[in-house]
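lol forgot to send this yesterday, sorry. struct tokens for the thing we talked abt
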């Protein structure tokens, strides 16, 4: 037997009670059940990884399937090779490490969208070994920017007056999303600029010119 850690995206399905784990010696082979996990947490805080001790070999392929309290099954997931790091898992871990205020479910959703947009393919199928360190940093920053948009940042303030002295104190967190986005684009090489040239517009068939206004001297000039 071998120990294999499986990382996966937490489902947004209420009333789940069980996680089924399947194993196959090949990616396209027949997947056989090897373990049923009941300690999966509760909605919406289900587990996002699990280490099985019942794997036949760590190089085999594994898939999972969720089950609810009524016995309904939600389909077997895409197969992943044992102990292979995923791009989605790495980006989510990096984002949560940089700012623990994030909701892991929100970060995961945005990481999937960012990776899909950048690689133009299924984010769960991206080979981790082909992604550079710069790309990982860029994808993490883009994921953080999108996550901040959907994450409320708490702020508090306090005012008081003592005699003739008025004081105001405040605390909060403000994120420079433009700076994060610019740095992400720099890492990913996705910066671009556009120069637009507007065509000359004829006024009154070319018989009239432009009307200019100089507000500093309250002048209006007509050709």
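and heres what i got for the seq, position by position
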């Amino acid at each position: 037997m071998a120990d294999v850690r499986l990382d996966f995206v937490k489902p947004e399905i209420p009333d789940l009670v069980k996680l089924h784990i399947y194993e196959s010696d090949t990616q396209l082979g027949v997947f056989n059940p090897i373990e049923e996990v009941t300690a999966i947490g509760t909605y919406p805080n289900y587990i996002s990884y699990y280490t099985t001790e019942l794997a036949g070999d760590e190089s085999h392929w594994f898939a999972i399937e969720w089950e609810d309290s009524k016995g309904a099954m939600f389909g077997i997931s895409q197969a992943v090779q044992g102990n292979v790091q995923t791009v989605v898992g790495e980006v989510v871990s990096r984002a949560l490490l940089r700012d623990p205020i994030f909701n892991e479910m929100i970060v995961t959703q945005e990481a999937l969208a960012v990776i899909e947009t950048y690689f133009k393919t299924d984010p769960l199928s991206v080979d981790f070994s082909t992604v550079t360190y710069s790309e990982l940093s860029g994808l993490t920053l883009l994921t953080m920017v999108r996550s901040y948009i959907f994450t409320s940042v708490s702020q508090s303030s306090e005012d008081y007056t003592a005699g003739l002295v008025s004081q105001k104190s405040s605390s909060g967190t403000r994120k420079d999303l433009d700076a994060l986005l610019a740095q992400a684009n720099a890492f990913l090489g996705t910066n671009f600029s556009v120069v637009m040239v507007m065509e000359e517009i004829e006024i009154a068939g070319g018989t009239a010119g432009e009307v200019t206004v100089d507000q500093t001297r309250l002048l209006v000039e007509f050709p």
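The radius of gyration is 27 Å. anyway ping me if u want another try
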